Fold these 2 entries.
Entry 1:
Amino acid sequence: MFSSKYSVIPGFWLSLGYTLSWLSLIVLLPLAALLLYASHIHFDQLITILSNRQLQSALKLSLYTSFYASLLASIFGAFLAWMLTRYSFTGKKIIDSMIDLPLALPTAIAGIALTTLYAPNGLLGSLLPFKVAYTPLGIIVAMVFVTIPFTIRTLEPIIKDIPYSVEEAAKTLGATPLQTFLYVIFPMLFPAWLTGFSLAMARSLGEYGSVVFIAANIPYKTEILPILIVSKLDQFDYTGATVISLLMLLISFGLLFFITIIQRWIKPHRLIWFMTHLSLPFFSKKKSS
Amino acid sequence: MTPIIHKQTTLKRSLLLTLTWLVFGVIFLAPLSIILIEGLSKGLGFFWHTFANPVALSALKLTLFATIVSVILNVIFGVMAAWCITKYEFVGKSLLTTLIDLPFSISPIIVGLIYTLLYGSQSILYPFLMEYNLQVIYAVPGIVLATIFVTFPFVARSLISLMQEQGNTEEEAARLLGANGWQIFWLVTFPNIRWALLHGVTMCTARAMGEFGAVSIISGHIEGLTNTLPLQIEILYNEYNATAAFSISIILLIMAMIILFVRQWCERKITHVTSDAEQ
Amino acid sequence: MNIHIKELNKYFNQFHVLQNINLDIRKGELIALLGPSGCGKTSLLRIIAGLEQPSSGQIFFNDQDISNKDIRERRIGYMFQHFALFRHMTVLENISFGLRIKPRKERPSASDILAKSKHLLDMVQLSNLADRYPDELSGGQKQRVALARAMAIDPSVLLLDEPFSALDTKVRRELRQWLSNLHHEIQLTSVFVTHDQEEAMEIADRVVIMNKGVIEQIGSPKEILDTPKNDFVYHFLGETNHFSVGEQNFTFRPHEVILSIHTEKVGYFEATAIDIRPLGAVTKIVLKPKDSDYPIEAQVPNTTRNLSSLNKGDKVYFRPIMDFEI
């Protein structure tokens, strides 16, 4: 019944049974506990928690910092991915092998390192004319560090797949470098870029270890949602923590859904259609000349 | 191999390269050098002294224990899940795949919370757990469970993508030649997936030994009992003992580097195998 | 061993991929399942092997119903399209696999296994490559290893899925002949799937032509070529020309035409030569009939008289030899 196609390879029930049991025990059961706990929360309680000013400012700060961090990470990431696939230069191997370090390095270490680096008396912090550590900017810096590998690694295979001859073809057809980029390269990269951006944003929203040190947890100023959950838990306010968690889950599932939509709907030809209908000024100028 | 841009003016090229190194230097190199500079700032003697401390040693032991247990359990799960998903067609397969990936999109803080809700004092399971004297929260089992949760999809993921590419014909051929399930797995499938398995293990190890958010909620920070290395780093840092915190960080940084090195080595091995399959 | 397939049906979701298949394969025969892609030929082969289960119907091996038998009890020698060699094992290890994994009670001694594998290696003429790995072999060598591996378990029947499709043209021709000779030697009941009619005609004792899940015709290559049962079979076996004048319709192969440049005889039609291509033994001439918009293709031996004086744009008269009228 469960198996819709016959297979001669043995082990279906064993592997499916084990997978489902382990999945339920580790992932589904605890999530069910969250939903069960949430189902006991009264509606007016919910309203009170959600209308709390501290929560609202944390939500705003979380969205704001993770959006800008993902934007920066995906721009720097795209630049590094391009350089790593299209250029060869000495030291490229070193860069390439260290791109994944933020994924392997414990987040707490990233946190204390960045805090020390950007503190007012730190190596970089003392050079900069504005404060980074203990401000929202510091949060963004930490988020960029932990998410930049995602943006690079989603773009790299796509850039590798664009043969250089495509650019040459555009050139032989008389396209300027800008036109080549806008009509050939950009539409091919954009879906992956957006996927990398969304992945980075989902990760940034939930990031704690690297952010908690550099943020210094000043309510209304540098308190993001995960930090707020922790402070609720320190006060044994499980109801408040549950509501904020559900809110965060809702946002990250929204982002995941968005990624799926991107992968299914945003295709290069759709982008090209969209861009030719934008009638960008340089395009019409080229036409008339 | 890498297509090199032709007719690139040297000025433009050196400008781009300078920018590359600048971005790389600020984002990647600066934080790493800070770890080394700070960790060794009081000399090697102090560095070793940090580890002579029994509290640090017990944190190291707990980190290793949680990492090893979660890696082993995730390997078993990963192989089972990948086998089930790549070898058979069944209703609900894509839902199962999504659920396996689910832990990646859940914040570690939320992981800490849901395990506290499930096993903590306000849970309906709590009286039952107390009856058998099973302490999960603020104890080692809770730390291990949270670590398994945050590393849940790694092994399954690396195996699924490779096994899907490789297809089932070798297994079918073995079956036709008379092999049983156990022989098919150990003699035919396993030799083909071992690098992907190790690849999954490296990422799983890295994440397990570095997990901070989820573990920090569940551990209760009992020094010498439920403190892992990352939590020990936090405590030392907050006690204004930054040098000691960075000393421990150096050890974890070296472990992370080794893990990355092994991972890249695996990746080369894996691409080698798949390019054979295409021939 | 003879194989008897009775009223076999197979559905994939909504698709009826095999429709009421009845087929008898005699002992020692070499049978080709021929048809365009998606005709169900590979599904039929996989069902005979036991890799897939039929939705209904029965399969008999020597009058014994094996429809519900485990795949391992069928003792099938199966060769996959891309050979499915175990890439982490050497050639010798690949070949001996089926013997090494037998339960201890049935397993031959290590020296017997080695002797038998060596013998198979000799049979496929690869004795010098015993310690190579599959990715160090050429396509043709891989195919022969796959065959030796399949033969190691003393199969009751040999099933080959597109055995030559992964090879290049020259190797394909050589191996085709080699396989045919080998079959004559060992006289093992064999079924192979192909989409290449030339391949099927060249080595099969009998050809089963399939289309959209049904068997269109079963017969020896000569029977099928001489008396195609229907339109599909006729078209599938080679290039065809269509030509109609008034009520008359002609369908004929490019070589089934006589050309004339001299006179207007009875039964000849006027046309213009629009392309002339010498192809070695034959010359291909594309004609544009006077009363038709569709060009037809003629192939004549290049020993044909006056062929050399024919130029593009010249008037030519043609007559279809065989009138396969529809």
Entry 2:
Amino acid sequence: MVAGGVIIRVRRGGAADDPEERHQTYAIAPRPRMTVLDALTAIQSELDPSLGFRYSCRVGMCGTCALRVNGRPRWACRTLIEGLGESVTLEPLVNFPVLRDLAVDMTPFLDKMSRARAWAEPTEAAASAPVELSPDSRQRVRIDPHIECITCGICYSACGMAAHDPDFLGPAALNRAYTLVCDSRDAAGGERLAEVADEHGIWRCHSQFNCTEACPKGISPATAIQALKRRAAASGAKSFVASIIGGLAPGG
Amino acid sequence: MSGPAFQVRKCDVLILGSGGAGLLAALAAYEADPALDILIAVKGLFGKSGCTRMVQGGYNVALSAGDSVENHFMDTVRAGAWLNDQDLAWELVSRAPGCIRRLETVCGAFFDRSSDGKIHQKAFAGQSFDRTVHKGDLTGIELTNRVSEQIVRRGIPVLEERRAITLLPVPGADGRIAGAMLLDIRSGDFTAVNAKCTLLATGGGPTFYKYSACAQELATDGMAMAWEAGVDFCDMEMVQFHPTGILTGEGLQITGTLLEEGLRGVGGHLLNGRGERYMERYDPERMERSTRDLVARAGYTEIREGRGTGNGGVFIDVSHLGADFVRKNFKGMVDRCADLGFDLAGAPVEVTPTAHYMMGGAKIDTGCRTSLPGLFAAGEDAGGTHGANRLGGNGVANSTVFGEVAGREMAAGAGGAPLEGFDSGTAEASVAEALGALDVDTPGVDAPGEEDSPYSVRASLKELMWEKIGLRRNGADLAAGLGEIASLGERAARVRAGGGRAYNIAWQNVLDVRNQITVAELIARSAIERDESRGSHYRDDIPESKEDALYNVFISKRSGEAVIERRPVRFTRVKPGGEIASAAEPVNFVD
């Protein structure tokens, strides 16, 4: 633990009603096992009530406290101050509009989940009763490592392609699409595969694995995207061919 | 202020909250009548606010051969020390199989399976059968994710970061509710939503205790609004404390969040600061697998009597179960401990009892109707189902089952009914009162000449509730506590937040602490009325239970005054000590 105190540099502004971006510094007295979230609540309640940030569950289940800590997207609630150095820089996630300081608008990210049809569309059999399915079945072995995503947006903030192409569906949406495509209980497999195989979908991913490296849940969206690419290629769907042509078109 | 103080928006069904109750209510209302204009308003982010998201262990439901809804019912009322509204408890257990089925068949959830492919059910404390359905040790994530997706798929509109601040009655005195005033946390603007049916699904959340397991934006908003509107409440003295909240240090955010019940279920040990398995002194037969109320109180006693750890907690130790076993079965718990520098699989971890759940709430009937027409309640905002103590695994069952019930009832009630207008005086007063908590001329929390803050008031409230209206109570402390709550209420009424209206967290905290104080007072008053020990309500000065005349404590507001009433428990299905036989055939997936 740092003996003399920790400097917290917070990126402020960048919002529609507070556009001027600036960094503000606060000195806090660290305590053992203090997290970034503890630092923020201490600043907000003791030093600067105007600071904007967001949290709910405070234990890594809601994901709403996601931000960048020294440049790296993380959950504030599960990141200990200890080990971050004597100066800690906190900034909002990138690729999201800022609402106030560290609190961002998740709407564009969630809209992409919708574009990827990130919801179950049960088959007739799955809609009639819970399906008997072994946990060791091939599909569950594929799905389970990807299913516990909490859509905190950390992968999307880490994604270079999301910054480059604002229409890129992004790692979380494609990860969810993968779990559905693998699921024999879901009826929309082929159509969903076509949706995510467009020019702003799976083929945009350059397999940098930044999403995988950043995910606090240990999920690998990049692996899911690779698997979707294989399926799309194997399917030989018309939409896939069209997407390749579209994706390679000049300026496309 | 220029322009109107608030906008008006009309809808058929207004749902306040997007936890288990709110999500399932919206889905059920839509399925019943897709033409309805349904509106969801949530204080935080959609599907990510509140406690359903935080459910770990799972969902109690009788599914297996050998189990029955009757068994589930008997376990529920025994745990509830016979104070349950038995009709509500029956609704819970008999509708849970249908609800868990729809979570899979309609929403695409996939709960853990046994090797034979059937839904796996694990052991939870206080139950006669292994009936807890789960998804690993983070069940709430699967549940809220999958239902939220279906709400999005159906295009049901959601307002995020909009908190309800006041329930709006129709003009006149019949008490009918016709919507709620919403405050947009982002902009600071107000919208009066005029609705045919309004559902309180904001969650309870005893966040006004020093250690609390709940999502921290919860401030008993729904109950406080309902109280102000004149709703009748029951069982408010019954607050559940969970035995094992993680303890990293007093006042640190993650402190009080849960290490799940299943750790004790599989054989975890609880140790005091001396390394003794102290449950031997409290329940030598069941040890750590005793009911939540007893285990939590035992831990509290160890700490209070000086046998705690250095940080004022006790230890949970699962290392003897084998590191691989623990890592495989409790991955979520192991991961969160690791982030904090603890090795759950290999060494004891410090924990504390932590305020977890309110069994009490708005009195509802089996259609989730409150005492006010047009106003429904489901989930933790409603009381009565659990009696004096809730079984682990019955919480998420309760919110989802009654969410569905409320959704269907509201759809039936709203379809074809006329929309009645709301009382404009109440709406205007609501806006004025909220704005009164804001001092736009100062940048800081405190208004000029004042040195108080909502954080200071809340810290005092948390300490007071923990010490005097917590796990071990007595008449003198309760009476003193009630007086201190009144003083805190006066402080809260004076405190102001500085700054502007938009995304002003300090302002929201002022509104929060006022609601918390309102509900804390209901707990104190109800606890004073119960002159015995029962379930979660334990009095050192009256440790015995009085079995001859069981009653529920009701509290209502009449002419501005709190009126307390004892009403005899109605044993509509089984009398204390009795049994109801299971049906000959196991009833699976009934509605």
